[in-house]
Amino acid sequence: MTLNADGTLNVPAGVTEFTITTPVKEDTTTEGEEKGKFTVGGIEGNEVTVNDTSMSAPEDAAAPDLIKDPNNQGGAIVTPGPNNDEMVVKFPNEEGVEQTVTVKKDPTTNEWTVDGPLPDGVTVDKDSGKVTIAPDAVQDGKDVNATGKETGKNDKAGEPVTTDTDAKNAQPISDDKDGNGSPDGVVSTTPADEGSEIVTTVKLTNNNGNESLPFSLPNGTAAGELGEADFDKDNITFSNGVTLNADGTLNVPAGVTEFTITTPVKEDTTTEGEEKGKFTVGGIEGNEVTVNDTSKDVEDPTPSIDITSIAGQDQVAEGTDGYAQFLPSNIATEEISNTTENGVTKVVNGFVVKGTSANVPADTEVDVTITANGEAYFTGKATVGADGTWEIKVPTKTVTTTVTGEGEEETTEVATELNSPKFDTAYEVTAKAIADGKEVTDTDTTESVPVVTDIYLQDNLTDDAANVTDFYTETGKYVGRIDGMADTDATKAISRETGLTNDPNAELHFTLDKAPKAGQVVKVLRYKIVDGSEGSFEDLTDQMTNNGLDYTVKPTTPQAETTNALYRYKVVIESAEGVDLSEKVFNYRLDTIVEAMDVKELNADTNTMILQADGVSEIGATIKYKYQTGTGETDFRPVVDNGDGTYTLDLANWDRKVASSITIQVIDAAGNVSETKVNAVRNLFNDYTLEKGLDPNGNNFDDPLITGLSARVGGQSASLVADNSQTFAATDGNDTLIIGLDNFGKMGVGNGSVGRGIYIGGTDRIEMGAGDDHIQVRGTVQSMGTAQEGYFDMGEGNDKITFGDTFVVGTYTIRMGEGNNVLNFGGTTVQAATFDISYGDGNDVLRADTSKDFAGTKTISFGNGDNYMEVGAMHDKNEITFGNGNDVFIAKSVGTKAPASGVIDMGDGNDTFSVSGLFARQEAKLGAGDDVAIMGDKIETGAAYGRLDGGDGNDTLVLTKSDGKVSLQNVLNFEVIDLTDPAVQEIGISNDYITQANDTTKAIYIKGGTNDKVDFGDNGKYINGTRFKDGGGPLKKNWNFWEKTESDVVHDGVTYDKYTYRTAEGAVNDEAIYIQQGIQII
User: CATH number of the domain at 186-292, please?
Assistant: First the structure.
């Protein structure tokens, strides 16, 4: 029986049985008994068992983990293996001596303890056994070794770790272990005399060294403070190999834990007294050092003068600029004089400028001047006293009380003259004297309060139309920085550079020249400018953020959509007492909608169209057009800009009888876009709706008369859209309908006219449908019949109607619909005309030519939104209702002709109501909100009286009349009366006026200038300078009066005196009137 090379067996013939003897290996590994089966010829035999007779060798313990300390260069961390109960760590210290640290784990508490002493710089964590070796405890570049031990197992060494070179990060010790109030790491000798040395001992946290340890000498500048100039910096020495780097830092070698700095103190001849200061090393400020003054003064005979105090603010050090700031709290604190002569009492208050002098003889005159921007604010003379000091008082407020007459005829007049410095201006205060034939001067500069140095809007919008890129892609002309307007002339704001934006979310950016002082506040207000005056406003201060001196206001609510609105941002710096210190205004014009342009000329014979810009942004617009000819439609082409707000379209071969024959695209100066299709007809005496319109091919298409007689029986040619695709009719797109063609002659009843055809069944229903539509009626509007027979219904969209000529007697119904709509009246309206005008929600406009009368019986209803109405002289009966929103009403005059009546109800919102002329025969209700009424003439008090009610909210009445007194007899519920217009104002106010029915105002604030007057009682009578007659008996002792009861009341940045009403019997009302200081009271 043999074994073949391939592992099979060779069995000879004749063999029927054989045996296989297999030796079993003997090993030292204990694995227990093992079982298996032999297989021969694919036949598996019985199971065989082999018994284990070996002995196993013991296992190794887990090895410790050794790493470099990631947070301390040059250090190491050693952590025991998972089941170690003992670990031995070995490493050389900085001197090369081997250190051994043995830690053991208590099997009961599982806490690790150190067996034997622990080397300096080594710590052990009791919970984990981790050994941390500080950089100072181990030699740089050497191995740290560790062996892990476990009971019954072989000890196992971890992979050694080689330490790095220590980081050079030595710092002075910052602890104050001795409790003396100064760090232990920087200690200087003190006191020292001039000419001696100060030794500063520096103790470091480690011996790693530091190549650039910061070091500085005392650096005080004020009197009594040590400065660098007090030391001999070129001869400072250092111990233990420490050297001074070129940049002033110290190079500390490794191994040094303590060194000294020896600093020589200069000896001088100036007597300045003892001086104090501190040495600083590594950012650690040491103990205070005192240097005694050992010098003697050398008397300087040169004369000198010094300003030391301005308006109660002391100079910090000679040569200091800007230490004083003129403020309301310091410019009138000193009473300069109080004199009475011939019944005239004059009290003068102001502030004081003080100073000192040296070697200037007593009684020498000191010329004091205060100037700003080359102009003198004050000049005066002071006199040097025996002690060398001098002072001068600068008058800022003079109150003159003049008493004339006697007994019952006695009257008192109080006048206030103010000469205050401007808070937002820096002044030069100069003192000059002549001593010993020499001129000596000193000039100190005051500091202005913070002022705005740069201000602009950031426009981030092209246009919100979805297809704006079809009109333009170069956005630089319309997006970016918006600079302010030069004034409030809207016609000048025609670009980004001149104050025009279409972004209702534009951000305001401004920069101050300096930070506000403690208590000073930055406020941002936004006003609507109405008729050149400030109307309603919003306080946007809480929407302001700043980065240093740069401020940004991001309004949280978009401004209202508009075709033209002026706004003013006002940035105010306010004092701690609430007084306005400086102010910067920024005017801009917002235009978010293209206002459709009217036709100045449209001539089908010359084929010429001239467009006239109505909205201001259409001046400087980019306009393209295309039109129908006998052979089809042209391509778009540019108009000719005539440079005067008009644009010429050359319509060569124009086929005017094709529906929507002209297409006009406009990009206005603000970047807004629009497109409209134009139909032009001679007159409109029939219906014009989505279903029905004029038949351009009918015999009477150019019907010249409204009568519908003779050859025109049945009226103007009309057809249904369903029957005739060329019908001139409205669509749901942007449609323009021009009524009046110049080739037919003068505009009037036969050209450019609208009216109901005078025949049975005649109607004139104008329904424009959806879209931004425009109708221009260039001639006379004739009677349209009943409200069912004829009307204008503009539908939804931003629509516009322009009436260029007169209205005759008749009833007119105009429904503008939802959207931001414009309705213009260019001609006169007769007294016998009746108008029913309504708007849906939106920011709507009604304008009538301000040079003409707006007559007739009018019912005008605006929806919710920021609506605008501007007219000339408004007569007759007017029932005008505004919805909720910030609305504007402007008129030249109201109710000056009889008969006139009605109510103007402004609704809720922050509204502005402005009448530049007489207001009579009408009641105006401003409603809830913070409203502003701007009145330029009388509010009639006679039989034709007008009534003005501010309603709920904080309302302001602004008066601009300059040629007579305005009585407030019929003025209710205004909290502020504003007389600050440059014109001289006089108002009459009485207790009866403010306590009449429906007047709930308890406090009225009247602000104005020193030339303005308030007549208490509206009667021109006084009692004395603080009491003013208002009712009561004929004898002075029985007069009721207003009495000043409080002074210096600050409200919204203005300082007032408070007056309350008292009867002759002593009863006191709870109403109060606050009058700005300086206003004259009679």
Answer: 2.60.40
